[in-house]
Recover the amino acids of this structure.
């Protein structure tokens, strides 16, 4: 089913606000162009998107979705990303003024009350990026390697009786812009992922301890 285009700022309910948690982390990755690895089986995103949502109606019921808007194909050349061609102007908007149906991830806690969504950050840690186009699980979204994407969160409000749910807020997350890859291209991205990922830090410490034990000891 097609989703009507909202106003120019993609928002007809200006009171609702979405802010990304861990702004410092996202700024660091955005400065070097974030990369996410996509695999056939699906790979979780790190850093994962966590959103702080305000000004929902506490007693109303909402579904929360995330999708990925394609922004063109890129190439890694001379240690920088270069755009090869743009797809943003044709991929998502049709001539009749409707948005093409993108693959969406419906948050696993949907539907839920507005008070629930506002109490804690809304985490999309279960979302996986896959290169597969068929037989997807509900938590997978297909991406094309070497293409740029901008995540977008959409909030649907449930209506009374049998009325259709209403899209009350749609917001892109520019700081979470990323390029899908099958292996990291930029060494700075790898460094940041190790720096901010406690699991990667623990793995690195364990590896270093193991490596030190394997070194031959030099007798005095």
């Amino acid at each position: 089913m097609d989703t009507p285009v909202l106003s120019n700022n993609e928002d007809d309910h200006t009171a609702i606000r979405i802010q990304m948690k861990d702004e410092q982390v996202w700024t660091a990755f955005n400065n070097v162009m974030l990369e996410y690895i996509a695999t056939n089986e699906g790979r979780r995103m790190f850093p994962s998107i966590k959103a702080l949502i305000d000004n929902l109606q506490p007693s109303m019921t909402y579904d929360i979705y995330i999708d990925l808007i394609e922004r063109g194909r890129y190439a890694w050349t001379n240690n920088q990303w270069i755009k090869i061609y743009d797809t943003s102007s044709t991929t998502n908007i049709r001539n009749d003024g409707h948005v093409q149906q993108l693959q969406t991830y419906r948050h696993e806690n949907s539907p839920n009350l507005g008070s629930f969504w506002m109490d804690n950050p809304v985490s999309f840690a279960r979302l996986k990026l896959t290169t597969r186009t068929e037989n997807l699980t509900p938590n997978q979204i297909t991406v094309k390697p070497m293409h740029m994407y901008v995540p977008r969160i959409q909030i649907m409000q449930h209506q009374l009786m049998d009325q259709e749910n209403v899209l009350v807020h749609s917001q892109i997350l520019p700081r979470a812009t990323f390029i899908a890859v099958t292996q990291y291209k930029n060494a700075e991205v790898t460094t940041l992922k190790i720096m901010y990922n406690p699991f990667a830090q623990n793995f690195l410490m364990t590896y270093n301890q193991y490596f030190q034990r394997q070194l031959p000891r030099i007798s005095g």
Summary: Residues 1-12, 93-99, 210-220 have pLDDT under 50 and may be disordered. The chain has one domain: 3-214. The longest helix spans residues 198-214. The CA atoms of residues 61 and 171 lie 19 Å apart.
